[in-house]
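The following block was generated as part of the benchmark described in Methods. Ligand: zinc ion.
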Amino acid sequence: MQSLWNDDEARELAGDRLKLRVYTSRLLGRDPDLVLHGGGNTSVKITEPDFFGESQDVLYVKGSGWDLATIEASGFAPVKLAVLHRLAKFDALDDRTMMREMRAGLLNPAAPDPSVEAILHAVIPAKYVDHTHADAVVAITNSPEGEKHIRAIYGERVLIVPYVMPGFPLAKAIYERIRQSDLAKIEGIILLNHGIFTFGDDAHTSYERMIRLVTEAEQFLAKTAPPPRVPAPQPATRPGWEVKLAQLRQAVSHAAGKAMMARLDASPEHTQFAAIPEAAELATRGCLTPDHVIRTKRIAAIVQDDRIAAGVEQYAQDYRAYFARHTDVRLTMLDPAPRWALWQNTGTVSFGETLAAANITADIVDHTLRAIRLADSLGGWRPLPEADLFRMEYWELEQAKLKSAKMRPPFAGKIALVTGAHSGIGKACAELLQQQGAAVMALDINPAIITRREATLQGIFCDVTDSAALEDAVQETVRRFGGLDIIVGNAGIFPPSMRIEDMQSEQWDRSLAINLTSHQRLMQFSIPYLRHGIDPTFIVIGSKNVPAPGPGAAAYSAAKAALTQLARVAALELAGDGIRVNVIHPDAVFDTALWTPEVLEKRAKSYGLSVQEYKTKNLLHAEITSHDVAHMVCALAGPAFSRTTGAQIPLDGGNDRVI
Ligand code: ZN
């Protein structure tokens, strides 16, 4: 493990203890082998005047909800050390009281909640205290002779503390141990099955001790552990696997009672692990470090190609039994869905209510697999027993971390695909679906679409008349997000005005290819995935021209009318699968690339109207915008229309030819 300490960077911060604390905290946070996603915590003890000018000894400790990789000075909660020392003297303290008294001891009431480990940090006398869940250390201690190995590696340079529930009990255990030890001879504390503490009177010493001790653990593993067995990798790219992934995500969403996104990891390490015969048994022993349990749950679901839904059901059943074994009357069971699955001979799949959550779980699973294989080579993977992990999973302070998450947006966990998404209606639909929580794949023939690279709005260049490209884009959506729930068939063109007798056949053919045939292909390619979607729906952007055609637009109107008929047949064919198909008929939407100011001017003139009159020539005198269509799309995709299929909805400000 490399030290990331840089003398030049540190020199600029010299003299400012808190800035140096921020600096080395971030160095720790940058290494995923040390901490992952909010794991670990750090502190510094500073003497400074309070508001009244009285000198105070203060512990600046990582605030709850902050990540070491990105923490700032304001992410540290300043708690009066005297308060923490007095709390440490209690024999027992319940979590709520501990948190309440720590908050009461804050120098700044606007600061975040202090880490639940604040008392532990306070009782270590050194100025700087660093705590991580280093993979190498945890992997060693999660093996049958973990303690013996730790002693062999570090000798008397570390205190070894058997697993104790984090929070007050752990702080108390450390407090007692420290009182009996000579800390001057000690560089760190190893918490079995949990992690490592180092400390020092300056930021550099504490940080470098962390790097050195963890490096020694890594060297021990490299020397002692035989290389893990490497079975032949299994191809995850066998035909049809995307449908199975969608099926798995659907089963997990059903078990969770809400839409979940899914990320498959089929990297060589994961496919190799998924291929070994004992993988299922290894993946169901427990998690790497206890605070992962709220992200990954205790164990994985085990699924196979021919046991996808059954594997998830089995997991849910086992989870209920696990809850029943350990619960007391106060607890409410969390949803019984897995947060990751071992897909035998394929890889691992991580699930989350959002893509970000699924990605966090995927990272943790990745580190867990490595630790499992290392510990297995040390004589066996032996994580904490079920009862300890249950206590952690249902610990109110951990649950609070999850509950502090923002309110769930309407399309959280949902996956959408929008065609013609670079501008106009398609862009508005893609962005509104994204804003409302969906992960969106945005297809367009404009290559600029690929610049859309947000986590939850990703652009793919696609000519929808190229069937192979379209099919691949549909599959790619499933590969990236795990399934497909909402499709907005929007791509279309408005050919130049042309009377039937003057029709150029290429204009006619092109209109049919884009406005009609591409939508049939899109349905064809997406139905196998929609069938495994969550409240799946196909929304077609039709046109006011369908119920109220105008002269000169035969190529457009005929194609849109046929598209509407296609959607009606689709509604009939797909109702049995629970897939809803509905059509929106917008009147001219002027905020699209089609309607340049010149075109508008010309059209308005031909009706003898001003541009404004032309834009609002409907019963409500309302201009129809892309945004209006996007709102209708979201309404159709949401619960208000969950019992509606085969409908055609006008979005035209009221048209007396239609009414
Ligand atoms: Zn910890």
